[in-house]
Design brief:
With about 300 residues, this protein is mainly alpha-helical. The chain has one domain. It contains 14 helices and two strands. A two-stranded parallel ribbon has the order 1-2. The model has no long low-confidence stretch (mean pLDDT about 95).
Length: about 300
């Protein structure tokens, strides 16, 4: 793909500078907010805080996915070893995820976004869709049908380990260790039952969040077949609450990410501001919030 990038060499160098301090801070915040969700439900134990904590955990699960993606690009930290360690042991195991396999597909997505070789094409190629169809998809997500299907599919690997490659086997066992560690921490703290909050979020909240994130990035964009990220990708401007719930760690700045995947997530907002000043977004519409995105993703019938 060839397209103009309206940034100077010095600006590009600054924006692609990786920082162990900033990467570590984001990782620390991710775990701190996750812990705070459990503390909320433990300190004020009632159905309301359980539900609120579960919804917030769905956003944190998306946060773990975003950091898996970022470490997979080797942009969260300077060191490839540290990126690999964080991806394998701290972020991808949150849903028994094979981060390495995901990144192999994801890099192909970057090379061929919108064309027949794009491994993610099936997720968004038929947008815009009817409002009723989108409602049905989200209903399946929010009623747990999608989450149970996906989690069952992952956990079935334990009954067929001999059919899996070593990489997938190790990913499953890292996921098991991760969840056992979480359960142990909650048990030592005196609240083992709060593990149910984590799995409730994984089943009832995370799938809908993941769907909205995925289709908002490339669904019903101006020109999916175009080779310029301005037209085949979408950035969405959001406020703090939506960022907490739906698009943590700057993942909403997706045009900027496709423009240069070497830009770490903690510099995407700065990249957006520079590009905006240069007029890079003048001929496209950047939605403010997901309600505008949903309007772009749907049609009347």
């Amino acid at each position: 793909m060839a397209f103009d990038i309206p940034l100077t060499e010095n600006e590009s160098e600054e924006l692609t500078n990786r920082s162990d301090i900033l990467g570590g801070w984001i990782l620390l915040c991710q775990f701190a907010i996750t812990a705070a969700c459990f503390v909320l439900a433990a300190a004020w134990s009632n159905p309301f805080t359980f539900v609120v904590g579960t919804i917030l955990l769905g956003g944190r699960q998306m946060g773990f996915f975003v950091l898996t993606h970022e470490a997979g690009h080797n942009t969260l930290f300077k060191s490839k070893w540290l990126n690999d360690f964080v991806c394998k042991w701290l972020t991808a195991p949150m849903d028994f995820f094979n981060g390495k396999a995901y990144m192999r597909e994801h890099l192909e997505h970057h090379r061929s976004v919108g064309d027949e070789d794009d491994p993610d094409l099936a997720n968004y190629h038929d947008y815009p869709i009817s409002k009723e169809r989108l409602k049905r998809k989200l209903k399946r997500d929010l009623t747990g049908q999608t989450g149970i299907r996906d989690l069952t599919k992952r956990l079935k690997g334990f009954t067929n380990l001999n059919l899996l490659g070593k990489e997938d086997q190790y990913a499953l066992f890292r996921g098991l260790m991760w969840h056992l560690a979480l359960f142990l921490i909650l048990t030592i703290s005196g609240f083992p039952h709060l593990i149910l909050m984590w799995f409730a979020a994984l089943i009832f909240c995370y799938p809908a969040i993941a769907r909205l994130r995925q289709v908002s990035e490339h669904g019903a964009v101006p020109d999916l077949a175009h080779d310029n990220p301005r037209f085949n990708t979408r950035t969405t401007i959001v406020g703090p609450l939506v960022r907490l719930l739906l698009c943590p760690h700057g993942v909403n700045y997706h045009i900027e990410h496709h423009l240069n995947p070497a830009i770490p997530i903690y510099r995407l907002r700065a990249a957006h501001r520079l590009l905006k000043v240069r007029g890079y977004f003048n001929d496209i519409k950047i939605p403010n919030g997901y309600l505008q995105v949903i309007k772009q993703l749907t049609h009347a019938s």
